[in-house]
């Protein structure tokens, strides 16, 4: 029985990896959901289950670096979107915190976007006293930034899947 499990383990590991790769791509399309982390976790789990073959140290390091890049990307681009439309550092910081809190709003995709908008708007108003169109621009910039950050995350997730595929076929 144990030998048959050992023989089946690579197949099980491959199936889990494929599911996590697909889940990671879908997750990367949702603002504030770390899809790249799911992909990386799948790669690490696959390595543990298969003795790090065929996804060796190079693939592990590459996917880890891409995961860190992806995690920072969403928040940085959201803040830059707010700054680009005239927000102060307070408004940009509010956009980041709002994005994180928006993840807990039970409306898929729209929750984090509403959080980024509200965070930028509220922080900008409270810190600077700005009102009306100025704070609305900061909020809108945060939303555009969050959407662009999501596009960047999708691209990074697809690059990670390509790296994993090359690890199997190279």
Descriptors:
elongated; 170 residues; mainly alpha
Task: State the shape.
Answer: elongated
* Number of separate structural domains: 1
What proportion of the residues form beta strands (DSSP E)? Answer: under 5%
Structural class, from helix and strand content? Answer: mainly alpha
| Main sheet summary | none
Global mean pLDDT: 91
Q: Low-confidence stretches at least 5 residues in length (pLDDT < 50)?
A: none
Number of helices: 6
Number of DSSP strand runs: 0
Distance between the termini: 33 Å
Order of helices and strands: HHHHHH
Cα-based radius of gyration, to the nearest Å: 20 Å
Q: What's the helical proportion of residues?
A: over 70%
Could you characterize what this model shows?
By secondary structure, the protein is mainly α. The protein has one domain. Helices cover 83% and strands 0% of the residues. It has helices at residues 2-28, 35-50, 57-84, 89-102, 110-128, 133-169. Helix 1 packs antiparallel against helix 2, helix 3 crosses helix 4 (89-102) and helix 4 (89-102) packs across helix 6 (133-169). It starts with a helix and ends with a helix. The mean pLDDT is 91.
Would you summarize the structure shown here?
The protein has 170 residues and is mostly helical. It has helices spanning 2-28, 35-50, 57-84, 89-102, 110-128, 133-169. Helix 3 (57-84) packs across helix 4 (89-102), helix 4 crosses helix 6 (133-169) and helix 5 packs across helix 6 (133-169).
């Amino acid at each position: 029985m144990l030998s048959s499990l050992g023989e089946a383990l690579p197949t099980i590991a491959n199936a889990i990896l494929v599911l996590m790769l697909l889940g990671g791509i879908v997750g990367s399309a949702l603002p504030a959901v770390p899809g790249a982390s799911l992909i990386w976790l799948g790669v690490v789990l696959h390595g543990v289950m298969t003795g790090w073959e065929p996804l060796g140290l190079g693939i592990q390091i590459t996917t880890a670096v891409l995961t860190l890049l992806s995690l920072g990307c969403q928040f940085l681009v959201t803040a830059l979107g707010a700054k680009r439309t005239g927000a102060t550092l307070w408004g940009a910081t509010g956009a980041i915190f709002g994005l994180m809190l928006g993840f807990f709003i039970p409306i898929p995709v729209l929750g984090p976007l509403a959080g980024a908008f509200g965070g930028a708007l509220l922080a900008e108003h409270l810190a600077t006293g700005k009102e009306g169109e100025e704070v609305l621009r900061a909020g809108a910039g945060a939303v555009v930034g969050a959407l662009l950050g999501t596009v960047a995350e999708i691209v990074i997730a697809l690059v990670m899947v390509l790296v994993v595929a090359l690890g199997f076929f190279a």
